[in-house]
Specification:
about 100 residues; mainly alpha
């Protein structure tokens, strides 16, 4: 036969107390880990904000560059069209003069 041990209220209280002590230690460890993770996230977000700001600046600079290229291209196209028309007018003037 098995020996049955009776659990007293004091034994039960000690078991519950030990469980709470263990739980408290685990929670402290988890909270420290969460704080560390949160600090890392804050750092990552700050770095992302800097990166996004740099990208915005780069995009703005690219827009200006593209606008300048378009303006220069339009000038060259206008010059080519002008030269073509001038040449055609000269030919017409020679023909009808």
């Amino acid at each position: 036969m098995k020996n049955k041990k009776e659990i007293t209220l004091e034994d039960l209280a000690a078991i519950v107390q030990n469980s709470f002590i263990d739980l408290k230690a685990e929670l402290k460890t988890d909270i420290k880990e969460l704080r560390t993770d949160f600090a890392e996230l804050k750092t990552d977000v700050a770095e992302l904000k800097v990166d996004v700001a740099e990208l915005k600046t780069d995009v703005s600079e690219l827009k200006v560059t593209v606008d300048n290229i378009e303006a220069n291209l339009n000038k060259k196209v206008d010059k080519i069209e002008y030269n073509t028309l001038e040449h055609r007018v000269e030919k017409l003037e020679e023909k009808f003069a």
